[in-house]
Structure formats: structure tokens, C-alpha cells
């Protein structure tokens, strides 16, 4: 699902207040696009805006179940181990004249990925969690 208008003004720091506003927009989009769903699982990392009391209260108000995330573990963030790695490989060697050109090409790349590409990142989470536990939080090779 693509959430529109999630862009922050360039150079603006994401605070807990701004993050909560983004969560409200996500909640609105979920209600609009998936009104039949009653429960939502949410995974984010431990960045300060994500762990702030204000954010915790907002997540409680939304009634979302937040999945626990170790302090630093890109092995558990589907965007880090799945999407960003693939995007990085695709971007290697490319040059862009403008930020707008880069944005357009990234949007095209996202649209070119089949739904299964995104689903696999989520489906792989339980296996990756088990690996993090097995390796006691240390780096582990990708299968």
C-alpha cells in the first residue's frame, strides 16, 4: 500500500509529533483501504521518535500491536534487508541530474516490483527473528 502525502519538508527533523501525524495518516489510509481489518501489526525500529512516550500513547490510541525490535537489527527490518538492498543494487552506477528525476525513477522501481517481492519480506520475519536469537544479535549471513 502506498500512503500519499507522507513526505516531510526537506531538511526537517522527524520528531515524535511529526511521526504521530504520519501515524494518523497511515491509520486513515488503512481505514479507507482495509475497513474490514480490525487488528494491525506494526513494526518500526527504535529511533527516538518511534519510542517516545507521545508515540507510544498514539500507538495505544490506534490499538495497533507493535512488534518488538532489537536496538539495532537491520536483519529484522524488511525495508533494510529486502527493499533497500535491491534498490541499492539497481541504483549502482546510475547518475541523476535532479532530485525529481531520482524520485521518479525510484517510484518506477517500486511500481515494477511484483506484490510477492514485498510480501516475502514480511513472511520472512519469523525466520529472521529466530536467526537473530540463534546468533545472539550478531550479524548472520543471508540465506
Automatic annotation (TrEMBL):
Annotated signal sequence range: none
GO biological process terms on file: DNA double-strand break processing; DNA integration; double-strand break repair via nonhomologous end joining; mitotic DNA integrity checkpoint signaling; replication fork processing
InterPro entries: RNaseH_sf (IPR036397), Tc1-like_DDE_dom (IPR038717), Transposase-MT_Hybrid (IPR052709)
MF (Gene Ontology): DNA topoisomerase binding; double-stranded DNA binding; histone H3K36 methyltransferase activity; histone H3K4 methyltransferase activity; single-stranded DNA binding; single-stranded DNA endodeoxyribonuclease activity
Domain Tc1-like transposase DDE: 13-103
GO cellular component, one term: site of double-strand break
PANTHER family cross-referenced by the UniProt entry: HISTONE-LYSINE N-METHYLTRANSFERASE SETMAR, MARINER MOS1 TRANSPOSASE-LIKE PROTEIN
Protein name from the UniProt record: Tc1-like transposase DDE domain-containing protein
Amino acid at each position: 500500500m502506498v500512503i500519499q502525502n507522507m513526505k516531510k519538508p526537506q531538511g526537517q527533523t522527524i520528531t515524535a509529533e511529526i511521526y504521530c501525524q504520519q501515524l494518523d495518516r497511515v491509520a486513515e489510509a488503512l481505514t479507507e483501504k482495509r475497513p474490514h481489518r480490525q487488528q494491525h501489526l506494526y513494526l518500526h525500529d527504535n529511533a527516538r521518535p518511534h519510542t517516545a512516550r507521545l508515540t507510544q500513547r498514539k500507538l495505544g490510541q490506534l490499538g495497533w500491536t507493535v512488534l518488538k525490535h532489537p536496538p539495532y537489527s537491520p536483519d529484522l527490518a524488511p525495508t533494510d534487508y529486502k527493499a533497500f538492498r535491491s534498490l541499492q543494487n539497481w541504483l549502482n552506477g546510475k547518475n541523476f541530474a535532479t532530485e525529481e528525476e531520482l524520485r521518479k525513477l525510484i517510484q518506477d522501481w517500486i511500481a515494477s516490483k511484483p506484490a510477492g517481492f514485498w510480501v516475502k519480506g514480511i513472511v520472512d520475519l519469523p525466520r529472521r527473528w529466530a536467526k537473530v536469537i540463534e546468533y545472539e544479535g550478531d550479524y548472520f549471513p543471508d540465506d
